């Protein structure tokens, strides 16, 4: 599976299959009933840290599909198969004059994995743009639609990640998009990048792609899983203590407290460019851990634990990894 995970970790699956249509999932469940074993659903492998040996069955979701229906007014419903590439979907929607996804350009992976951690970037989260998630329910053995409320989306979190991680296979995602473009440029970095001139969907898309290319390593060149740690949310009291000690602390008000910039915390500990075994903290962006060549899961895990320990000792804040370690 080395080519199927963006860290480029040399994982070998015990069993492997590919799902091209939602109705294959019933057969898959039948097979698992007779051969009980763990199941890992795989999209583009861009949010996974895999062990050398992956026990059980890996099922790569490759369901295609693009279905458009008009809504009253300026809006449309767009249902896209879970196996479609995320960035290609964003690009295609804009080309068809369907607006709303441009801030989420260039995020690697599949459409089906996007709700799992409620992907977000440049002021937009997936939850802001979807009307339903189509799933195969492994408990009820049937396909159905979940409303956005039922998905319990949070910051890099959802029902699919936290509360019921094994229950649903996402088969399609339904977006609610607009035929009239409304810019979302609350994120300062994006506003600065746009500069002067009319803000069009194409310009937002191009600017997001340009900024991302300068900030993040391309997994084809250097193995990585994007931002490795979530930005930790702390209480107002904790924030005030930290702000007193570290006057240039980077933080944003968030529900119930403050969200701290995890990259800033790591950078302040002098860890940018730090290497441990075959893994390193990316020299241009402290939030990204990279495969320095021939890394295994243990290398990523040891480095992740080291970063957590150093940040906790200095700031008393616990960093939580964003990718899933499997198994
Ligand atoms: C360079 C880089 C930049 C990134 N930038 C961002 C960013 O800006 N914002 C952001 O939020 N994330 C970012 N990511 C993380 C990652 O791209 C997203 O989390 C993406 O949605 C993962 O998609 P995937 O198809 O690769 O999922 P995978 O890594 O294959 O799977 C991730 C999880 O979803 C589950 N899963 C996959 N498909 C399904 C399905 N059909 N049904 C149910 N469960 C499923 C898997 O079992 C696993 O638990 C970045 C990653 C990289 C490498």
UniProtKB/TrEMBL annotation:
Swiss-Prot/TrEMBL catalytic activity: UDP-N-acetyl-alpha-D-muramate + NADP(+) = UDP-N-acetyl-3-O-(1-carboxyvinyl)-alpha-D-glucosamine + NADPH + H(+)
The record's annotation in PROSITE patterns points to: FAD_PCMH
| Keyword Cell cycle among UniProt keywords | yes
The record's section on Gene3D superfamilies has: 3.30.465.10, UDP-N-acetylenolpyruvoylglucosamine reductase, C-terminal domain, Uridine Diphospho-n-acetylenolpyruvylglucosamine Reductase, domain 2
Pathway it acts in? Answer: Cell wall biogenesis; peptidoglycan biosynthesis
Kind of enzyme, top EC level?
oxidoreductase
Residue stretches spanning the membrane: none
Q: Which GO terms describe its cellular component?
A: cytosol
Q: Which GO terms describe its biological process?
A: cell division; cell wall organization; peptidoglycan biosynthetic process; regulation of cell shape
**Record's subcellular location:** Cytoplasm
Q: Which Pfam families match?
A: FAD_binding_4, MurB_C
User: What keywords were assigned to this record?
Assistant: Cell cycle, Cell division, Cell shape, Cell wall biogenesis/degradation, Cytoplasm, FAD, Flavoprotein, NADP, Oxidoreductase, Peptidoglycan synthesis
Record's HAMAP family? Answer: MurB
State the family it belongs to: Belongs to the MurB family.
Q: Which NCBIfam families match?
A: murB (TIGR00179), PRK00046.1 (NF000755), PRK13903.1 (NF010478)
The role this protein plays is: Cell wall formation.
Listed name of the protein: UDP-N-acetylenolpyruvoylglucosamine reductase
User: From which organism does this entry originate?
Assistant: Marinobacterium iners DSM 11526
